[in-house]
Amino acid sequence: MKSILFLLVLFGISIASAQTTICDGDVISESASGFYTGGSSQQLYILVDAGTGNIVATNTSGTFTDADYGAGSLGDYEVYAVNTEDPAIIAEMSGAGSWATALANALASCADVIGPRVYTIIDCTPTDICAGDSIEVSASSFYTGAGYEQLYVLVNVATGNIVATNTTGIFDETDYGIGSTGIYNVYAVNTDEASVITEMGGTGSWATAESNANLLCADIIGPLFFNIEICCDLEVEVNVTDETCDGIDDGEIEFIIAGSSLYDVDIEGTLEFNDVVAGTYTWSSQPDGTYAITVVDITDASCDTTLTATIVQGPVPTAPAFDPVSAICSGDFLSPLPLTSTNGVTGAWSPALDNTTTTSYSFTPAVGECATDTTLTIIVNDPVTNTIDTNVCEGDTHTFADGSTSAITADVSLTTVLTGANGCDSTVIENITMLLPITNTIDVDVCEGDNYTFANGSTSAITADVSLTTVLTGANGCDSTVIENITML
Fold it and tell me: pTM value?
């Protein structure tokens, strides 16, 4: 809470039956009765500045405004009623000279003069304070003799009642009422009268208490005017975190709100934070751009602040580059992938390395890196196994996968491990089945002189018994021996 100190020394008031305190700008209005109206007599009302002793205004209506005494002119002014038919006195009273001289001349000419009525013009412009703040006033040069007390009295202007009285001159919201607003006056009262002290300490009418105090010759100065109002103590600080990378949309706006109320935060027409107290709030994951921000007190729409915040566009992201990884054979050692690209981007890979199957790995840049994700595929080649089943004629020479040759004399199986075209093991299993040669014996009776076509395709006239052996190639590719025994009939 704030304390506001004022000195009650400017507006000394000694209220008598003919003295009135008014505010600067108020109208002074006086009238007299029973004055002489015969002949050329005039009833004049004279306004005199008590400080200078000079006449400031004269009229016949008895009404004076701040146009007469001067706007902003504070202090004591006196109003006199003068009845005369002397033109010289009328002229002098209508001037701006010394009142004392004019009065002496008027009295010398037997003019009727009544008054003065004293008006103390004070500045009634209230000092604005915020509800919850303290008012602190002090007075000086008051009497401190035995039995005297210096009281400070707080008065609610709207009700005209005393709301608090003390000897310190300090009033807080517990005195004028928590949440109360409006115009309040503070008076300083110096008295040794117990009845005045008691009445001032109550909550009755200030006008009555003031009147009674004046009757008992108490010294009263004041008032000072205070306008207690609900103040806007809203303060907003904004901090911006720019995009780390264009298109990432990771900009942030941080709001630091100070104030004693509840607030709504509107960003670009959307209510982002509702009924929040003072504190720090973050609007995150935002794209670049300029945003209009309004923070408003939910209890007082006039208590608001509007500002803008700009999230700066981040740089264009870098595409991480990596050297390709040569294909490997399943089970071979696979070196860890580099955590920094060839163009300087750090990050991490997933999933874990697998040297048994072809895998595409994803690279995710580290937090703070302005870079895109990328992938790298490592090919894992499986070993190759081929089984070859081959028929070989008995005794024939066979060249195996490893390049060796051998005459086949029986069924045989040979496994050879080679290096395949992909650089990995290529296993060849050769199953050799030996095929035996075929011998067929054909006994044929042929009449003497008849032609006979042999197995080899030759034809001959049979003139005697004959036997012919022909070696052909059988259907299995091996030798097929045909023995033809020809018996001539």
Answer: 0.47
